[in-house]
């Protein structure tokens, strides 16, 4: 019995087995690998030549060439046995960069532009520090090698990071695959950063994402190790439902926060995404998220490589590139496209002379011509072709003369059948030991990268079915393959293919067994890995099973459900729809009777996901299948019925139809809202009075001790009520809105807190202000809502905060106390996916409220571009339009060169060409036109406009805090016009507004104190009560000085100056005018300052 062999002996035995398996007459050696990481690249003209004969090259690097090379990009090569005439290896290690100077220079220029801080400081365009470079070319053209030239430059910087993510041909439908690989590598790199930088990253993630970091942990397991020392859930209870339509926005925010955190600690940051032609729609969305993030001020470069011949006009990638091209100007990032072509004869000659040392240059043209003819100038194919020639003995070095020799005619005849690089590599792999081939086939189906434990599981469980003899240890086979440089070993016992062509060649080894191979490997992984491992690799495993499951085995329907649910949770809705559909296809004909629960889940999920991607016909088919089942309960059909109702409202804009569906659904659930719509007015008033009485009678301690609602049925009813609240508001049925909000408040008091409780308390507070002007009771409702926000997470805090502060508390609190909370909640709104109210709070915090408070125009104008980008990025068109209107208005006020500052015209917005009819837009246009007329002293025009619009803003935009200041801006020119024209119509309307503001003052609104004092002064002046008027003017000046509203300081001083001038108090009038000029200058109203200075 022979002695046991150690690993080294087995390796030698494997090598011997490989050499003995040679069937080619020219083959005399085993497999070795040399480096090709100095790969060659760039477009060159193709030149053909027909040169024959024999040529020789000498070598002086024999000893060096015999050394094994184990770094960089590698591929097959053949190393001669000792004392053989072909004992020299081909020298790709020392080969210089060839033929890609232009491409590399372009890439370097993009990098230099990104890191040039002085350029961006000069132009004040931090967004332009983002670079997107797309490198296209056929497989093997050297795209990756071009990109890799930048890595050394990046790493010259102390905190520079260069990471790669690669997409896989086998998992092109797997959501986020390449993106997550890149971010996983980033996590590992960041973890090695200095302690201070690491702490900054951890603190940023913890603060900005909180518990939402779980969204990313499912995608990027490496992130868990990075934040494990610092991540703690906030000490509040999470009661919010994970709504499908907010998932994309939540994930967008999460990826952006993660990149901001990483790129702030590691700069410059270069993210390399390889093989984008195999990317999925979700990964391309992330690419979009990162490049359009206006809040990321750090340098960021993303390089994407793709095979140009596998991307056409109908592909996902092509459409995304077109979309990104259209975004560059608006989002201020650079997009550069580089095309990498094939070699011409000159570049191939350079490869030959660089690979074979000390060449006889005159003898290389014939060999280069054959290389060009057989490879069509593909760089990777050229290298593999030369290696094949060397292996077959058609290129050899004489040991005595140290000369390289070849016979061109012999090479031409022997390589006639060389078809493509995959076929050539396939032929070489068939000469490997049988067990090595079998392991390579398994590895090829697992993916472009895999762990040692995964391939070991597959090999030990499945490998014995592929080989006749006892299977060798996985580690032994992997070691052999790595030494042959087909695979390379990375960190954490991870392996990856040296080139994707090698993976393709390994896949081709399976031949007709491809489908069964995929199923067997997928099944091995699904049942062999533990629960967490299966979850991490779920998409890849299910893809393998689905590709090979030609027998339609029902057992894997549940696996597809798991994959669909995971994809849904990651907002990869297209993938979720596909997995659900595949799972449905695996169900039996009697599915509703034999596996009802699984069937219901798959059909419901398929309907929801198809609706999310806009495939409403498919969604309707799935829904109809479910709703046609006679024995399903109302609780089981609620999701589909709600989805149908919401689709009617959101997509068809038939809000009243949605209201009817939700009323019917509540009726089916035993919750009749009203017996008839005509009874709603009376019911809403009665219900509101009862709710007010009950809320007031309930002590605050009750609210402090409230717990979440836990009854599933009541939670479902609350969800339906919440939808009815929304669609009744959108349908304009405000009384039904109030009635339904009362129902939700009542449910909160009876059954506990749900995610809509705080919003409904705040909404009723707003309704009480609008309908009853009872600010004390409204404050009670707002206080309860705020206490819920502090205690519970997931309560639509951005929307609730906007209602509480922007619509309610602004009537009883100073503006400056409203400003900060609205700004603080923007991030929470973006994080939770509540983009509409996040942007409402943002615009209020950055633009409209600062303007109302008379903050310097320059500071507000500086916020306009970034805020507009965020509005458009969040697809909030109404806020974007309002912002443009206000931006143009402030620009006209501040710019002395404006040709007609009283008109709302300019490069940002033009009222003359405006055709928008949306209520909020019309309201803001009227507001801006009135402000321009007012501050440009065109009082009669402003007064006429005030008579035309009257309370239009309050009617079109109920609940907006601007409603407090807008009547004041109308009243001022009305009083001015009344005094100058003596027309009664101006006097009557001005006095009406004075009384309105007087009621607000009496109710305790601190923001209208100086409004009322000043307008009272104007009324006294109009009534010729000059002494009283002068006293009130001075009181108004004192009051407005206390709050520091610059625009109204200027305005009130200006009007006081006019009053004093009418009274012939010229010196005092000029002093007041100087004060007006001073404050207008501080405010930044350049046009106004120039006009007033002419009066001195």
Automatic annotation (TrEMBL):
<dbReference type="InterPro" id="IPR027417">
    <property type="entry name" value="P-loop_NTPase"/>
</dbReference>
<feature type="domain" description="Orc1-like AAA ATPase">
    <location>
        <begin position="97"/>
        <end position="303"/>
    </location>
</feature>
<feature type="compositionally biased region" description="Polar residues">
    <location>
        <begin position="49"/>
        <end position="58"/>
    </location>
</feature>
<dbReference type="InterPro" id="IPR011990">
    <property type="entry name" value="TPR-like_helical_dom_sf"/>
</dbReference>
<dbReference type="InterPro" id="IPR053159">
    <property type="entry name" value="Hybrid_Histidine_Kinase"/>
</dbReference>
<protein>
    <recommendedName>
        <fullName>Orc1-like AAA ATPase domain-containing protein</fullName>
    </recommendedName>
</protein>
<feature type="region of interest" description="Disordered">
    <location>
        <begin position="49"/>
        <end position="82"/>
    </location>
</feature>
<dbReference type="InterPro" id="IPR041664">
    <property type="entry name" value="AAA_16"/>
</dbReference>
<feature type="compositionally biased region" description="Polar residues">
    <location>
        <begin position="73"/>
        <end position="82"/>
    </location>
</feature>
<feature type="region of interest" description="Disordered">
    <location>
        <begin position="1"/>
        <end position="26"/>
    </location>
</feature>
<dbReference type="Pfam" id="PF13191">
    <property type="entry name" value="AAA_16"/>
</dbReference>
